[in-house]
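sorry for the late reply, my laptop died twice this morning and i had to redo everyting from scratch. anyway the thing you sent over, i finally got around to it. pasting the sequence first so we're on the same page, its 221 residues, then the predicted structure underneath. double check i copied it right bc i was rushing
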Amino acid sequence: MTNDRTELTRSELADLLTEAAQNVGGITTAEYPTAAARSYLHPVLGPLAAGPRVITELNDRFEGFVAIEPRPAGPAGLFALASYASALGWLTESFAELTSSVDEICTRVGMPTEPCAPIVAAPGGTERDDEFDFGFSALESEAVRSAAEAAGLAPDDYVEVLSQSLLAAARITDACMEISSGLLDDADLLSEVSDRPRLDNDPGSLPALVRSLLARMEATE
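ok and here's the structure:
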C-alpha cells in the first residue's frame, strides 16, 4: 500500500482480509524438518516456525493499512480495520500460548540445561516397559519404543510429551482456523453490494472476529 491515495474500496478491503485469512490458514499446514531425537515436537514445529513470519507480515500490512492517506474512516474501512486488528491480536496471543507450551515440553525433557523436572531414559531402554501400557497394537508399541529410544526417553515419558505436543498443535490449529474463517466471513460481507456493514449498536453489524472475541470474553466471566 502507498500513501496519498484515494480511500480503499470495499473490494480492496475484502481482498486485504482474504489474503490475511489465507496466510493464517497456511500456518496449520506448515512443515518443518524434525530430527529423530526431537520427534515428539514434530506436531508443533511447523506452526511454530511459520507463525512468527505470518504475524510479522500481518503486522506490517496492518501498519500500512492505518498509515494510508486518507485513513480509513467510513463504515467499511473501520469494519475491516476492526476485523484485521482482532485477527492480529488473537493470533499473537495464541502463539504466545503455543510458545509457552513448547517451553514446558522442552523443560520437561531436559532442555534447557537446567530443567525443573527432566525425563531420564530407563537404563537399557527396557526396564520400564511394564509401565508402558497405552493400549497400542504390537506394531504401534514398537514404533513408540523406537522413537523413544532415538529421543533418549522412556516409552511412557515419550508418549506423555508427544501427547502434550499434539494438544498444543490442536489448540493453535483451532485458533488459526477460527481466525481464518472469521476473516473470510468479514471479507464476504464487505464484498456485498449493499450498504452494509454498518457500525452501530446492532451486534450483527460487528465483524465476525469481534463478535467471537466478545463471546469468548463473556464465556470466561
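The chain has a mean pLDDT of 81.
thats about all i looked at so far, will dig more tmrw
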